[in-house]
Design brief:
The longest helix is centred in the first third of the chain and has 26 residues. The chain has a domain of 100 residues. 26% of the residues are buried. It is mainly alpha-helical and 144 residues long. The two termini are 43 Å apart. Helices cover 65% and strands 0% of the residues.
Length: 144
């Protein structure tokens, strides 16, 4: 019970950032190679399948780095994870014309990751303050 509140949410976020990062790297490489896995004649907000492949690959690498930082307990891992989750959410919104249901599911998962990391960051920043030493007086002194 000594772990900070929200540690489970942070672990959830780290695991799903790792899974999402690996999937984004695979999909990015497949899109760069013009794989037959993707549907033809899809309209993207901007760019082509190859440009979205590069964007997805970069987002996947950032997600894996954020996950590794969270697992390592780095001091900025939470904020880097929020940043990577935000990029994944924006990328999912931009993919809605091509894959509407999948993009909305990825967007919802990214928002859940961001919320979990933000809750954990908020809980960690609240500290009870320094513990008073045993001999120090706490509070006002009684009149003499």
């Amino acid at each position: 019970m000594n772990e900070p509140r929200g540690a489970g949410r942070a672990l959830f976020a780290a695991v799903f950032l790792m899974v999402g990062g690996v999937l984004n790297i695979v999909w990015g490489i497949a899109a760069i190679g013009s794989s037959g896995f993707f549907m033809d004649n899809q309209h993207y907000i901007f760019g082509s399948l190859k440009s979205w492949g590069w964007i997805t690959l970069i987002i996947g690498i950032l997600e894996i780095l954020a996950s590794v930082s969270l697992f390592g307990g780095g001091p900025y891992g939470i904020y880097f994870g929020i940043f990577a989750g935000s990029l994944a959410a924006i990328g999912a919104l931009l993919d809605i014309p091509a894959y509407p249901f999948w993009s909305i599911a990825i967007f919802a998962l990214s928002i859940w990751i961001i919320w979990g990391l933000a809750q954990y960051a908020g809980d960690r920043s609240i500290s009870p303050g320094p513990d008073p030493s045993p001999g120090a007086s706490v509070g006002p002194r009684p009149p003499a």
